[in-house]
């Protein structure tokens, strides 16, 4: 393994890495967004409205469930690898990766056993009262655990500053495979069952995971159980991140879950159709998080506050600018957009939900990468407290209004909860970190300064040599 490619990007290349990494992440997220739109449109044409509603419930269950199974390890991997490379301890990289992946696979296997031996049926029949979901339970379990492992493997590349591979395995690979197969099914058969849709989803994520593991092993060498002495420190570090991430994903996704318990599948289909479009609207923020996460940890370890400030404000602001165009399109022509994507006038009924959720997403974009900055700079408990409060408020409000106001009331409750979380985290970034992370329209004027400053600091550190 000694002749493998260098794991460590040399100091002084952060500005260059920001530009090249940003390009790869941008391309990846655009592919993910495009394949999501194509996939949703094809599924809406292949499945009945009732099956489409069940599919939305399953997709949200997979997202929330896989976050639970991940146990905060993807963020831990990014943080620990970035810090280890910054400290120059390259020999520890393989041990950290092997240990983290061993823990991730263990959690995944246990979760699969729980779901396949009755847990999945209990959720489908007792929580959602959905025999259709129970009928594809084994495929739901497989999709969930494979998604969890895939996230940990993909984020390993990000921690190693291989943004190209991290971007590829952040959904673009599996998204392309899924969209391509669904297109062929649509051309050949013209219709499909829910079970067939599950087969396609599991097959796509399996192919993506196998290729990701192959590339990661070729790069680092991941065979082995790692260092058992690292298990406990990694788990301890993951615990607050796990609860914060779980609370955050519940806040983002539990709305469809709740509707699955209280309203008809057709109404769930309407809400899910709007929610998925708004999720795509959040792509710029996901790009900003993907680019800045390892750099936040690295600059924080270095103590470079000036570069940190510029990074967490300028990069997200620039990346979020294109969202303005999409927001205008949604607000002006949302009904036509829904019909165009889903191929049925029935989905025009989701327009009020689409507008409400879009307003909540706008506020999130304005607050920048506040949540990720707190997580990467050792304030996981702050995120946990804020997220727990906002989730409790959103869920309580939804339960209070769902009977009378239906999907529109739930949309208002969760959009408000999500926006409140982002605002509070933005404020805490200022109070605890001394950083301004809010959106600024003048950020584009500062991008050249950011890149030049990072390169200059890097050249200075190269001349001085390591601090050890």
Question: How would you summarize the topology of this molecule?
Answer:
Layout lengths: L13 H33 L2 H22 L2 H15 L5 H35 L3 H5 L1 H23 L3 H26 L5 H26 L8 H35 L2 H17 L1 H20 L2 H16 L2 H20 L8 H16 L3 H7 L3 H54 L13 H18 L4
Helix pairs in contact: 1-7, 1-10, 1-11, 1-17, 2-6, 2-9, 2-10, 3-4, 3-6, 3-11, 4-6, 4-9, 6-7, 6-8, 7-8, 9-16, 10-14, 11-12, 12-17, 13-14, 14-16, 15-16
Key structural traits:
disordered C terminus; 83% helix; 468 residues; disordered N terminus; mainly alpha; 17 helices
Task: Output the structural class.
Answer: mainly alpha
Name the average pLDDT. Answer: 81
| Poorly predicted ranges | 1-12, 456-468
Amino-to-carboxy terminus distance:
26 Å
Radius of gyration, whole Å? 22 Å
Beta-strand residue percentage: under 5%
The percent of residues in helical segments reads: over 70%
Number of helical stretches of at least 4 residues: 17
Please provide the ordered H/E string of secondary-structure elements: HHHHHHHHHHHHHHHHH
- How many strand elements? 0
How many domain units?
1
Describe this structure in words.
The chain has 468 residues and is an all-alpha fold. The protein has one domain. 83% of the residues lie in helices and 0% in strands. Helix 4 packs antiparallel against helix 6 (137-159). The longest helix has 54 residues, at 380-433. It is globular.
């Amino acid at each position: 393994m000694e002749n493998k490619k260098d794991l460590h990007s040399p100091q002084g290349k952060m500005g260059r890495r920001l530009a090249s990494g940003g390009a790869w992440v941008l391309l990846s997220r655009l592919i993910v967004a495009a394949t999501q739109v194509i996939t949703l449109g094809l599924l809406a044409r292949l499945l009945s409205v009732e099956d489409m509603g069940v599919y939305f419930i399953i997709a949200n269950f997979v997202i929330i469930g896989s976050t639970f199974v991940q146990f905060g390890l993807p963020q831990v991997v990014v943080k620990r690898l970035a810090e280890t490379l910054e400290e120059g301890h390259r020999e520890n990289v393989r041990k950290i990766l092997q240990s983290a992946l061993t823990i991730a696979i263990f959690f995944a296997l246990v979760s699969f056993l729980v779901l396949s031996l009755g847990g999945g049926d209990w959720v489908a029949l007792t929580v959602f009262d959905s025999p259709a979901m129970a009928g594809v339970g084994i495929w739901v379990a497989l999709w969930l655990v494979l998604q969890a492992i895939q996230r940990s493997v993909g984020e390993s590349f990000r921690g190693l500053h291989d943004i190209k591979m991290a971007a590829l395995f952040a959904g673009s690979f599996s998204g392309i495979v899924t969209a391509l197969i669904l297109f062929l099914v649509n051309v050949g058969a013209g219709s499909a069952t829910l079970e067939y849709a599950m087969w396609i989803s599991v097959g796509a994520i399996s192919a993506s995971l196998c290729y990701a593991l192959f590339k990661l092993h070729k790069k680092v060498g991941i065979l082995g159980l790692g260092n058992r002495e690292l298990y406990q420190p990694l788990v301890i570090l993951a615990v607050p991140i796990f609860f914060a991430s779980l609370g955050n994903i519940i806040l983002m996704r539990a709305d469809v879950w709740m509707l699955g318990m209280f309203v008809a599948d057709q109404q769930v289909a309407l809400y899910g159709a709007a929610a998925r479009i708004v999720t795509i609207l959040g792509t710029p923020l996901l790009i900003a998080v993907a680019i800045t996460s390892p750099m936040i940890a690295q600059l924080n370890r270095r103590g470079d506050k000036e570069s940190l400030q510029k990074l967490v404000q300028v990069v997200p602001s620039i990346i979020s600018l294109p969202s303005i165009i999409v927001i205008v399109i949604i607000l002006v022509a949302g009904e036509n957009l829904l019909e165009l994507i889903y191929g049925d006038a029935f989905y025009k009924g989701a327009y009020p939900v689409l507008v409400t959720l879009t307003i909540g997403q706008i506020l999130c974009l304005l607050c920048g990468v506040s949540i990720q900055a707190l997580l990467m700079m050792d304030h996981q408990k702050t995120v946990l407290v804020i997220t727990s409060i906002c989730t409790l408020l959103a869920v309580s409000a939804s339960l209070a209004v769902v009977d009378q106001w239906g999907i529109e009331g739930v949309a208002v409750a969760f959009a408000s909860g999500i926006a409140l979380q982002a605002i509070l985290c933005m404020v805490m970034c200022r109070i605890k970190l001394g950083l301004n992370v809010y959106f600024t329209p003048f950020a584009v004027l500062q991008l050249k300064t950011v890149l030049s400053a990072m390169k200059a600091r890097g050249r200075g550190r190269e001349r001085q040599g390591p601090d050890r």
